Structure formats: C-alpha cells, structure tokens
C-alpha cells in the first residue's frame, strides 16, 4: 500500500492560540497529547479523548469547512443529508463525535460525490464570547477530493502549532501542508509539532445503493449552524488556518 502524509503549519494561528497550546520549557520534552494511531476507526480517538476528562464533553467547536469553487457541501442531519450549500460552511461540532458530510459537484467530475468524515478530537480556547471568530479550518482541497474520488484514502490531521517550535514566518491565510514519509503516523507527527484538533478522512466508503443509513452517518450527532464570515474570502485576506498533517493510501471502496 502506497502511503503519504502531509503536514501544514501557520504561525499566526499558533500565536493567537498561545493560551490554548502547551509551552514546554527550554530543554524539556514537548507534551504528548495522543497515544493512539490515526488508523483507528473513526470515533475511537475522540471517545478516548472524552474519557480523559477536562473541558471537552458537550463543547461545540466552531469549524469552517472550505472547498474548491462550485463544490457544494452537505452535512448529515436527522438521518439524511441537508440541502447542499457553497463553501465556506460554518458549524459547531461536538468534541469526540464523528460527522459525515457530502462534497458534491467535484471539479471536472459532474455527478460525482465524496463523503468525508470529520472527527473533532480536541478544542480551541478562544477568549470567552469570541469562539466563533476563530474556527478550526477544515479544507477539502481539489487534490484530496480527486484522490478520494479515485478510491484512494486520504487522512488529514489538523493541529495547532506549538508557538515555541513554529517556523518564524508570517502566514498567508491558506492552510499549508507537507507530506509525511511512508510508514509514519500523521497523528504522531502532528503531536510532535503541536496539539491535534481534528481528523478528516475521505475516500473508500459511499452510501449503499445511494441510501445513507445511521451507521454510515455515525448516528448523526447534533451540530450548530453558525453564521458565515462577515465578508467573502475574495474581498478580504483570510485569517490564518490551523495546520494539518495528511496521509494518503490506496483503499478499496467498501
């Protein structure tokens, strides 16, 4: 099986989230946030995170889902997918839960859909009352969607950079990334660079005979609909995106 992993970083988001990230002392080993491989089934890591306690259960983490132009996003609600809408889509997702969504109208592939999952495994700690101003960025890139449509499995781990270890460079607002070498775990790599927040998986699975059952939808956990950005990304420079690690592997459709 061919595997790739991809890591992305952004200094601005790490600086903004200084109080929410760990700050190891000079000469001290960085904190370890995860002891689980990214290859565990969706939901396993999130549920184990909840079992560790802390201010995680019941928290709806604001998330902004981005996709290429003309790609429509639909989240599952009440056992079915909602009316598709253009990105960016802003929602509050429960920490520890897995959410299934549909990405429709892929570039140059009309009628083809991909069904990613988003597993929120931790949260950000924005100032009280300002949580929706600093959502976690979930970017579904054109390359990722094309690979998933071809039957390959893509895993992206979004993490908050450790401000003590981040590269001293200004962010562009886009979610940058790099591939991790074959045989390496993207969650482990992200954990060495910061604090993992979300795991995005896509490729392989599609609804049976076009119908999505509750198992495929992971029980349709509740989410909050949040207002979109005040201005479009075409009118203003986007805020820095949280970094991410990504792995890709061949996977037979199920």
Brief summary of the model shown:
The chain has helices at 11-16, 44-51, 142-149, 186-193; strands spanning 3-7, 60-66, 72-77, 80-81, 85-86, 89-94, 98-106, 109-114, 117-120, 136-139, 152-161, 194-202, 223-225, 244-250.
Verbal overview:
By secondary structure, the protein is mainly β. It contains 4 helices and 14 strands. Strands 1, 3, 4, 5, 7, 8, 9, 11, 12 and 14 form a 10-stranded antiparallel sheet that branches. Strands 10-2-6-13 form a 4-stranded mixed sheet, with no helix packed on it. A hairpin with a 2-residue loop joins strand 7 and strand 8 (109-114). The longest helix has 8 residues, at 44-51. The protein is globular, with a radius of gyration of 17 Å. Residues 1-30, 231-238 and 250-254 have low confidence and may be disordered.
